[in-house]
Amino acid sequence: MLATYPADLGRVDREKLSKCIEECIACAQACTACADACLSEGMPAELAKCIRTNMDCADICNATASVLSRHTGYDANITRTILQACASACKACADECGRHTHMEHCRLCAESCRSCETACNDLLQALG
Amino acid sequence: MLATYPADLGRVDREKLSKCIEECIACAQACTACADACLSEGMPAELAKCIRTNMDCADICNATASVLSRHTGYDANITRTILQACASACKACADECGRHTHMEHCRLCAESCRSCETACNDLLQALG
Amino acid sequence: MLATYPADLGRVDREKLSKCIEECIACAQACTACADACLSEGMPAELAKCIRTNMDCADICNATASVLSRHTGYDANITRTILQACASACKACADECGRHTHMEHCRLCAESCRSCETACNDLLQALG
Amino acid sequence: MLATYPADLGRVDREKLSKCIEECIACAQACTACADACLSEGMPAELAKCIRTNMDCADICNATASVLSRHTGYDANITRTILQACASACKACADECGRHTHMEHCRLCAESCRSCETACNDLLQALG
Predict the structure, then answer these.
(1) Using CB atoms, which residue from B59, B73, B89 is nearest to C53?
(2) Cβ of A59 and D81 within 8 Å?
(3) Residue A75 — φ and ψ, nearest 5°?
(4) What's the CATH number of domain C14-69+77-127, 3.40.50.720, 3.30.420.40, 1.20.1270.360, 3.80.30.20?
(5) Chain B positions in Cβ-Cβ contact with residue A69 (cut-off 8 Å)
(6) Domain spans of chain A?
(7) Given CA atoms D52, D54, D58, D60 in this order, what sign does their dihedral have?
(8) What is the largest CA-CA distance in chain D?
(9) What pLDDT sits at residue B128?
(10) Which Gene3D superfamilies match (chains A, B, C, D) (predicted)?
């Protein structure tokens, strides 16, 4: 869709922007599914923090993907601060899921979070 | 992520479920981007209905993707009615964007909505 | 905000519309908080279905509140089907939380869901 | 709902937390309605930036309200960065709507955004 935007996108790095949108969407999906998979494990009490962090990360990744998908009336402060919040949520969730990598859903979710964190930080750097 | 779910998924058609989640996520993204692209066209007054339908469709597709990504404590009534709402929003948005296919963002968004509508209806039928 | 809408709202029952938006917002908030409170109880395994239904209900109520807050380019099919999905999610969540009314968060959440279900059905009837 | 949380809330200022959740929810609702009202004005081209900022602010306020409504497995970094993103989006939206206060929806939305920005900054300060 990025290529169909009718106005000028400005001097943004399109590749990093597009990569970051994709990572946010994939990470939100992984976190929603991981929260649910954790819930269905027999011992959700130990996974309470993991489930909560998954939910926060999904909400913030979804909001970030939406903000990054808009180019009209760009506001650098909104973009920067939501990217920072997203990187921070992804880091926390990758750390938390990273403690339970014996569960395949947590292992995959940690990977997705780490990858999204990197994409957010890359885009932040490219924005200057 | 679907393959990592630790409990029984029940007799759901995994392929149709997985396809429908993917379509909802792709459609939400297309609608969010199309609403923004419409906004940046010089004549958003004519596109007001299109923008609005895009926003509804994005919100409903996102909610549907989240509901479908959860398998714990499955409730058939919630799944069925949100799939019907999603099919209905996708149909409305495909029809509306379908009137402006000379704009590439609307053409692609209409395709994505039509494809998501089909996936919702296929899953509804498979659920019986 | 409803009173500030600059165009014609059509023949919608403003009181029922406004009531329904408020109920959806309050219910989404109650469900998000109840899911988290359930998570912090010592026995989330028994509350897994409750937590999941809370999350679905919160997502669907939020989407419904957004759709109902838009009046431009109104589409009756989208409004009707998302209201049906919302009533269905609220009913399921009220039933589920209604089994754990010894926990104050579930008791309040069940009330909020029941109240939102009624508001959705009232608005559906008023829409004809 | 805050009062029904079964575990320890920690040393958070409950009044400021509760105020901030309420402001985020009210601001998200005001922004969604203002975006739609702007769309229905006869000259949405001039309001394109306002509509876009409204949508960003609504998405970020909703995510922030959800994060703040969860207390289990609290992560200070997530809370702080999403509050900063929310304050930043509210400021941008208050500034933008503040240019169109002759339209009642923008005047009310600007007030709501300013009030939410203050609540986010107050809570940030209380968190230390």
Answers:
(1) B73
(2) no
(3) -125, 110
(4) 1.20.1270.360
(5) 29, 32-33, 36
(6) 14-69+77-127
(7) positive
(8) 52
(9) 82
(10) 1.20.1270.360
